[in-house]
Amino acid sequence: MKKITKGLVFASLLALGTGASAVPTITSHAADTYYGFTNIGSSVVEIRDTAAQLYDSYGDPLGQYLPMGSKWKTSLENTLGDGSYYGVATDEYVKATDVNLSASNGTSKYGQTSATNYDGVSVTNADGAAVYDINGDPVGKTLPVGSDWKIDLQNNLSKGTFYRVATDEYLSANDVRVYQNTISYPENKDITTRPGRPAGLYDHNGQYISERALGPNTSWYTDEFCDIGHIGYYRVSTDEFVRAVDVY
């Protein structure tokens, strides 16, 4: 994920289109587990064939279910190692494979919607990502783990969510993680974490740092505000960021 400063925003944003090609591989993401949050605007998910399990932000089941056919507002996508989840309440998520997504641009149930919320995808499956056609059927090709690809469309099928990387070539959301360019703004102030629970830390890609956190109701100096996946973060240490919603 590239990091760009405010003055270079417009010069650095990528134009996505049909027939997108690979960008150079920088590192393997196979060991990644938490990939962060993406603001997807005002959207709706409809529970598909059976009742859908609810999960927390780490992908752990909560033992609660949403009934088949029910519809829920969502504005947050949580991308974990086993695929994407959509937020339907505070720390409550449903798997993308259990729902139909009606995106904010009006796409209803199955079908394609613009992937402009993202700049591309990185292959995270250690065995590589199988390539599928528009119907979700494999075409006999595989893209290597760690490779990065531009995308322009998100294809929501009964088989799951797929991202287009070339003409009639798609990757399953379960084999990749989405990424966006990171935009940074200089800051010079103190912030205080909210009371009640520790505030999670994330790296510059919005990936969760599981072994560290900030104590509740503690103050920290920040020198930078970042837009990572359309979610606001403050930097509190070298490559350690806290979500803006977790501080005041």
UniProtKB/TrEMBL annotation:
One of its GO terms (molecular function) is hydrolase activity. The keyword Hydrolase applies. Residues 1-22 form the signal peptide. Keywords: Hydrolase, Signal. This is Teichoic acid-binding N-acetylmuramoyl L-alalanine amidase (Cell wall hydrolase).
